[in-house]
Amino acid sequence: MTTATTITELRTTLLQVPWQGAAPAAGILSAPKRDIFVLEIETQGGLIGMSYLMPLRGGLHTIDACMKELIAPHVIGRDATEVEAIWQALYRSNFWLGRMGVTVFAQSAVDMALWDIIGKRASLPLFRLWGAARTEIPAYGSGVFRGLGRDGMIARANEFTAQGLKAIKMQVAHIRPWREDVENVKAMREALGGGIEIMIDVNMGWDADTAIQAGHRIDEFDPYWLEEPVVAEDFAGYRRIAAALKTRVVGGESHFGRNDLRPFFEHPSTPILQPDPMRGGYSELRKIAAAAEPWGIRIAPHLFHETMVHVMASIPNANYLEYMTWNDDLWIEPVLPSKTGMMSPPERPGHGLAFRTEILKDCRIGGQRLKG
Q1: Are residues 146 and 118 part of one domain?
Q2: Collapsed DSSP state (helix, strand, coil) of residue 194
Q3: CA angle 90-94-97, nearest 5°?
Q4: Do 144 and 282 fall within a single domain?
Q5: Domain annotation covers residue 349
Q6: In this structure, are 155 and 260 located in the same domain?
Q7: Within a domain: residue 351?
Q8: How many angstroms separate the CA atoms of 290 and 350, rounded?
Q9: What angle in degrees, to the nearest 10, is found between the helix axes of 178-192 and 149-162?
Q10: Is the pLDDT of residue 67 over 70?
Q11: Of the candidates 236, 282, 273, 229, the residue with the CA atom closest to the CA atom of residue 255
Q12: Is a pLDDT exceeding 80 seen at residue 1?
């Protein structure tokens, strides 16, 4: 261990940021503002790594309490370059209470901030630190929310394609009966034509029988995938749906790490997995990608394109990045798609992201400083 990389302090900032315009019409999000958890880890030598979580369903203060009681005591005083050792120590020490849930969220924030430190210390962007596989990744426009209604969804999809994106994702289920969803998919295909890929997100809103019944009709409109058709635990349902439909059945965003995803590897009927960085951090996402590659399974991570672009640029089995515009206003230098619908990782050291100063100042609702 070198003195310069000894971890001396963890700082958290809890943000509630107004949405840009109206709140997302997703039908399953009720938050009037964006809840964002920011973590900074500082070393004795003055290196600072940053990460953030956007838990989507509240819980900022719960994560903050977890960081103080269950995470910081195992991190402060460690060498920031011991990322794997710290990951294992946190997972094992919190297995009794955690394994999934809030402890893994907090642990993920630590993991991503540590990798940011290592990238900055090496003066390398993360995707080059990990061994660059490519410099650009295709993105799809996400946020074609079910609550917009048929015409509103088509209008939003057209906004994305006008930017140059070659794929969009629309929602079904929850607030719409499945037959109306089928008509919405039909109208979307007619509006976009055959040159645009259409992803469909169920957000775990159907059971397996409904997914098969609706999916047989949706098959006709050549969607790229059907995402999270059933609740995360229904692995048998995933397999039944995949066997019944022509359309790819994908998922994984609600699962926690390799162990929770194991049935997708044991019965590889899901050709694309969508792990969430808040459920294991960069370290676990890269392990998931490595475990998936021998099975021909590709990775299309859940949200957070501005940070996931580094992971996707460093793995051989990258699929699509999910481009959600709702956080572009947070960053000094946002990561945006090109006119050809591709995204490239920043060449700045670490993940290369920095919050706008006024966001950190004006939207702060809490936080703490944790020292040894």
Answers
A1: no
A2: coil
A3: 160
A4: yes
A5: no
A6: yes
A7: no
A8: 21
A9: 30
A10: yes
A11: 273
A12: no
The CATH number for 275's domain is 3.20.20.120
What CATH number corresponds to the domain at position 48? 3.30.390.10
Closest-CA residue to 107 (of 93, 96, 121): 93
Report whether pLDDT(2) > 70: no
Tell whether 96 and 174 lie within a shared domain.
Answer: no
Predicted pLDDT of residue 27: 87
Query: Percent of the chain having pLDDT more than 90?
Result: 94
| Within a domain: 95 | yes
Residue 352 belongs to a domain: no
Q: Name the H helices within the chain.
A: 60-66, 83-93, 102-122, 126-129, 149-162, 178-192, 208-218, 235-244, 257-266, 281-292, 305-312, 357-362
- Residue 128 vs residues 66, 133, 200, 305, 365: alpha-carbon distances, Å: 32, 8, 32, 17, 35
- The pLDDT of residue 30 is above 90: no
What is the Cα–Cα distance from 250 to 322, expressed in whole angstroms?
A: 14
Alpha carbons 59 and 309: distance in angstroms, whole number: 26
Domain that holds residue 75: 3-123+357-371
* Same domain, yes or no: 100 and 24: yes
Say what the alpha-carbon torsion angle 61, 64, 66, 69 is, to the nearest 10 degrees: -120
Percent of all residues in the chain with a pLDDT value above 70, rounded to a whole number: 99
Is the four-CA dihedral 185, 186, 191, 195 of positive or negative sign?
positive
